[in-house]
Design brief:
Layout: E1 11-13, E2 16-18, H1 29-41, H2 44-53, H3 60-72, H4 77-84, H5 88-100, E3 104-108, E4 116-120, H6 122-142, H7 148-175
Antiparallel strand pairs: 1-2, 3-4
């Protein structure tokens, strides 16, 4: 039944157990909640199911590629593979499908003509904007019962959190974690 959870806080969503914050043994409730959210929204099974029921014609990995290409512009396949979290052969298949559908094109890197970059075609840009529109619809549904003031406060705090997380992550990459 919708909203029911097991003893560890996992919810059955489309046949997939998705954890909520109670399933993570962090001392920080914030970290537990963020972990549950990321795992849920990043789940290929859940994303694929949502896309299929939304009538989307392309799969979840292609959605990821389009989203990154619109945000970052022309990108090397190796970089795209890294951000999607897949290997070179799999990203080649994704690019091949997108190319076959007329959504991306291959070209030479401006800095190094020997290197291939992938960019969106006008049709690909339209499709990528549709990916972002789908995300907008998802977040609108999540926030449906929230007041405008709560949405604004949460957005402001989230923007601040992300900015601080990016800064902190850069420091951690340089020196590691503090003891």
């Amino acid at each position: 039944m919708k909203g029911e959870r097991d003893a560890k806080g996992r919810a059955d969503v489309g046949g997939t157990d998705l954890p909520d914050a109670r399933g993570f043994p962090y001392r920080s409730k914030l970290l537990s909640s963020l972990s549950a959210l990321i795992l849920m929204w990043d789940s290929p099974v859940l994303q694929g199911e949502i896309l299929a029921k939304s009538g989307e014609a392309i799969d979840q990995p292609a959605h990821q590629a389009l989203r990154h290409l619109l945000a970052w512009g022309p990108t090397r396949p190796s970089v795209l593979a890294e951000v999607i979290g897949t290997g070179a052969s799999n990203v080649s298949k994704i690019i091949g499908r997108l190319d076959q559908d007329g959504l991306v094109e291959r070209g030479a890197d401006d800095d190094d003509g020997r290197v291939t970059v992938i960019s969106l075609t006008p049709l690909g840009e339209e499709a990528a904007r549709g990916v972002y529109a789908l995300g907008d619809r998802m977040i609108a549904e999540v926030l449906e019962g929230w007041s405008l003031g709560d949405v604004r406060r949460y957005t402001t705090l989230t923007e601040r959190f992300v900015t601080d997380a990016i800064t902190s992550t850069a420091r951690m990459r340089e020196r590691g974690l503090r003891p």
